[in-house]
């Protein structure tokens, strides 16, 4: 397999090289003294929490000044949490979370932010000569390494019987993938919305999301907290999760008003917001606590992702069990561990 990474010294890349114990110790102390709550999220990513942000519900419920800060990738979110700049990551990707905790980061998964199987996929460029997955041999693929898009791509190739080693795979952020497809620099592009819509203007899906889901390929982002901060402030984490649910309830009951708010916060049109969110799922407390999510499937999924990342050289090792990093208790008890 020909893998090509863009040169980078960003925190997201450095995160994969190992974590310094002294930095972690300093970070944990910083979180314990936090006077406000900074939450990481993706720009251009329309989610229901933006209703609560706009209406001031998070400040009211948490009892702190809750500030939302944009990050382009989940790896950058994790790095910011390790530096002490961020206490909660809303909608962090599964793979950046797995990489971080495998390296020893004191982070915990406390909820599922959004599910989006249809909003994360791989697109075949028109004119690429790819009529079926078997035509991918020798082609160039653009995908953001160390993300769910990357994992989903690898598992899709595995399920359709294509050897990723026969392709040139290039590390690119989704907007760069979309631009490369327009130029004809890549034959297959993988990523998430809103870049996915741009890719589809120049191509079509390699495999449908429905077929991928039949293989067990759920796609979702998670709500992550620093363990030390959460242990010392369990009621604030519980209040944060409850406010996310309150925002989802408002969106479901007042779609027009909520869409206007969300599109403004996300910086995209209302039409695009409706289109993207129609393919999103926002599980609330009851669903989160079911076996299909935090009760069973999420810990198992984390382990599956980790094993695939090791097999494909993205991590040196995987943990035997990721369930200790999944803490459903913050949904049920303000004294959660």
TrEMBL record:
<protein>
    <submittedName>
        <fullName>ABC transporter substrate-binding protein</fullName>
    </submittedName>
</protein>
<dbReference type="InterPro" id="IPR001638">
    <property type="entry name" value="Solute-binding_3/MltF_N"/>
</dbReference>
<feature type="domain" description="Solute-binding protein family 3/N-terminal">
    <location>
        <begin position="48"/>
        <end position="297"/>
    </location>
</feature>
<dbReference type="InterPro" id="IPR015168">
    <property type="entry name" value="SsuA/THI5"/>
</dbReference>
<keyword id="KW-0732">Signal</keyword>
<feature type="signal peptide">
    <location>
        <begin position="1"/>
        <end position="34"/>
    </location>
</feature>
<dbReference type="Pfam" id="PF09084">
    <property type="entry name" value="NMT1"/>
</dbReference>
<comment type="similarity">
    <text>Belongs to the bacterial solute-binding protein SsuA/TauA family.</text>
</comment>
């Amino acid at each position: 397999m020909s893998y090509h990474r863009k040169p980078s010294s960003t925190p997201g890349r450095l995160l994969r090289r190992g974590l310094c114990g002294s930095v972690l110790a300093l970070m944990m102390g910083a979180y314990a003294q936090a006077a406000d709550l900074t939450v990481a999220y993706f720009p251009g990513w329309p989610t229901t929490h933006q209703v609560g942000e706009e209406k001031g519900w998070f400040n009211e419920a948490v009892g702190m000044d809750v500030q939302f800060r944009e990050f382009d990738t989940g790896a950058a979110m994790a790095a910011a949490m390790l530096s002490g700049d961020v206490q909660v990551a809303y909608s962090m990707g599964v793979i950046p979370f797995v990489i971080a905790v495998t390296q020893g980061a004191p982070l915990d998964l406390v909820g599922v932010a959004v599910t989006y199987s249809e909003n994360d996929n791989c697109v075949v460029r028109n004119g690429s000569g790819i009529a079926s997955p078997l035509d991918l041999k020798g082609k160039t693929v653009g995908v953001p390494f160390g993300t769910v898009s990357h994992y989903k791509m690898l598992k899709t190739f595995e399920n359709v019987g294509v050897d990723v080693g026969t392709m040139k795979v290039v590390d690119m952020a989704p907007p760069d993938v979309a631009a490369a497809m327009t130029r004809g620099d890549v034959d297959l592009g993988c990523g998430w919305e809103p870049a996915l819509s741009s890719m589809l203007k120049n191509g079509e899906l390699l495999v449908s999301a429905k077929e991928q889901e039949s293989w067990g390929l759920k796609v979702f982002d998670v709500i992550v907290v620093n363990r030390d901060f959460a242990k010392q402030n369990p009621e604030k984490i519980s209040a944060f999760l409850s406010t996310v649910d309150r925002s989802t309830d408002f969106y479901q009951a007042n779609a027009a008003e909520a869409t206007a708010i969300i599109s403004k916060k996300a910086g995209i049109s209302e039409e695009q917001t409706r289109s993207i969110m129609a393919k999103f799922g926002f599980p609330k407390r009851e669903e989160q606590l079911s076996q299909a999510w935090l009760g069973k499937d999420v810990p198992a999924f984390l382990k599956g992702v980790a094993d695939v990342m090791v097999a494909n050289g993205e991590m040196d090792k995987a943990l035997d069990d990721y369930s200790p990093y999944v803490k459903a208790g913050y949904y049920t008890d303000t004294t959660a561990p």
